[in-house]
Amino acid sequence: MRWWSSPLALAASLAAFVAPTLAEPVLQTHSLNSCLKDSGFSASKFIVRFTPNNGTAYFDIQAVSSVSGHVKFDVLVTAYGYELLRQVVDPCDTGLVGLCPMTSGKIPLEFNLPVTGDVVSQIPSIAYNFPDIDAKARVLINLTETGESVACVEADISNGKTVDLIGVKWATAIVACLALVSSAFISGLGHQNAAAHVAANALSLFGYFQAQAMIGLTGVPLPPVVMAWTQDFQWSMGIIHLEFMQDAITWYQRATGGAPALLLDSLSQVSVQVEKRAVDVAAAGMNLARRHLAPLVPRAVAGPVAALAKRANIQTEFGSYIVYGIQRVAFKAGIESTNLFMTGLVFFCLLVVITSAAVAAWKGFCEVAVRKHWMAHDRFLEFRNGWLTILKGILFRLTLIGFPQMSILCLWEFTQKDSPALVVLAVFFLLGMTATLAWAAYKVILIARRSILMHHNPAYILFSDPQALNKWGFLYVQFRATAYYFILPTLGYLFVKAMFIAFAQHSGTVQAVGFLIVEAAALISASVLRPWMDKKTNSFNIAICAMNFINSIFLMIFTEVFNQPPLVTGVVGLVLWIANAIFALILLLMLIVSTIFVFFRENPDGRYQIMADDRTSFMKSQTHLTATTELDALAATARGDKYGKGGLDLDDDAESITSDSLRRQTDPSYGHQHLGVPSASASVATFANARSPSPASPAMPLFPADGPRSPPRYNDRPASPFGASYRPQSPYGGGGGGYGASQPPASPYGSPPGSNNNPYGGAFRAQNNSSPWQRGAGYEH
């Protein structure tokens, strides 16, 4: 075994488990590319297949030559930059018509060429078994008389084995989706802590898959194994090939004034090279194409090809076409580049529709199951009572999952302009999704600041109110309560990466530098702030950030800015594939094991440590204190909630980005003008100076005494410190802890606090010296 093959032995053994086994070993190529300026030989179709078992090579070539005379072929075969084979071939010795002597003009060739045994023995066996081998054959055409090189052609060699496998795509997709569904099911059973951990890990894993797909979408020249590996995760960006869908998208594009690309339909007439060279070389080929494309490309193909040449990532060189970046991914997925945006958009919309239908169907099934006594009446009770709010939260979560995908595709569509209708859709979805997530992040920050102002703890309202938790929890439940704001840098991180991918397709170096800076910032922020909910989740996400940063370093190496030997580039590509394959397998196993344990443990929440923000106490306290309407009212008042027709609504669920809530929150005089109550600016100071240090006054018992009392007059009600809406007077507003009241207000439930008529007065408080609303919620100390 040669020296260079031993470092690949481990990788080859790993590849044996994932690469398909062919009936016989084969080396083949499907494209021929010029490697010499003003080359006198080119081919629009070039198919060569070598089978060592029978010692023959099959050729099918449609070539154009400007060389005349006797020539010799200097053949060089390399793998990962290392020379495997070098041989000089005289076409006159093989009796090839049209090549001995070579004549100018079109040269159609189709023949079988015998290969001697000594040549076959020089090719190592690993070349037939290693997936996505980075091998190429270069042929210099030299004049026999002078030895002058008049043409140079180059072909990439493949052995038909790859790590781009449909099984890997299905396995990763099923595990990620089942983990998300499992977290929702576990949450419905009431195990909020376990559900939050499973959902957080599933979302992080899904984000890692999208980061892998983003590497493939860059315009950086990638080794074949890296291209194939990243292609396994393009499903996470909605890049999935369905033939009937492609036909419908092509029709829609034509109907809206676009010109669909037809590159995949022209493969029998043109040669397509999946780019592995620097983009500046491809640009040089474009200059040559402008002079030579017209006489070389058939008229039937010239129209679609000319349209393709105007697009961002396909360059023309002597009738062959180079695809790179986003169009490289589309070509390898069997999708026309002009259909790529609509493909991702359609799959995102299908995901939203199918998920909404599934949630509605589950709601209907639960109601039928309860009526038929198939299921206990209290099972999934929270979901059945507030399923619409939960559905809103699920749709927000899907928007967050699809944000990287749609940001990249929408921004890229702005550079392509496939049709006016597609550009309008890109604008609508990009602005809509960005505004939706920005509004949701704003609401989370508003709720957290309100909780801090009222309770000195952001977790109190964020986790005690089911409306806020079910609707906005997707943005903050994976973080600790004090890091509720971290969703903003997360969204910024995703959007910046999307801009680099979409707008810098022509410059792989710019993309690589941008990725390096962004991933370094993400790793430093995650390591210093550690914003996730607990130590294990922080470790899980920091490991993902570290792997993304390492991948960005590899991406910089692939740009060849360091002028490293080709062997180094090939080895780095193998390291990227092996390292990420092992890392992804570990993450998948961790997620699978944790999900299985949750289902088979009697108390899934007990497997996870109690979070430092004490969110579990708030959630359980809220759950147990909703037995009666009266207790609901008391809990709402103690937390400072609105309580009316809509029930508990701490997060202003009725408000939206299109309502006048923004004006109520930004205009201090709006509450006075339209609600007849004092403005927020006039009451904040009073509220801040006089509010109680706890959600409820320690002087009040849990259940007020009965007895008729007059309800408080409207003028006696304190102004809301937020100016957003009116809140009723708290029955706990005693003299020492009311919302700014100097005198104890009249209680609508019975005797005032401290009166002799109160049977629960001093004795109850003597035994319970802390408020029942505070016990178990982190207020004892």
TrEMBL record:
Query: Where in the cell is the protein located?
Result: Membrane
Q: Where is this region: Disordered?
A: 687-781
Domain named ML-like is located at: 25-164
Q: Where is the composition biased (Low complexity)?
A: 688-705, 752-763
Q: What are the record keywords, sorted? A: Membrane, Signal, Transmembrane, Transmembrane helix
Signal peptide location? 1-23
Keyword flag DNA-binding: no
Membrane-spanning residues where? 340-362, 394-415, 421-442, 483-504, 510-529, 541-562, 574-600
A Pfam family per the record: TRP_N
Identify the main location.
membrane
* Keyword Membrane listed: yes
Q: How does it sit in the membrane?
A: Multi-pass membrane protein
Matching InterPro entries = TRP_C, TRP_Flc/Pkd2-like, TRP_N
Q: Which family does it belong to?
A: Belongs to the transient receptor potential (TRP) ion channel family.
Give the PANTHER family listed for this entry: FLAVIN CARRIER PROTEIN 2 (PTHR31145:SF2), INTEGRAL MEMBRANE PROTEIN (AFU_ORTHOLOGUE AFUA_7G01610) (PTHR31145)
What protein does this entry describe?
ML-like domain-containing protein
Give the source species: Remersonia thermophila
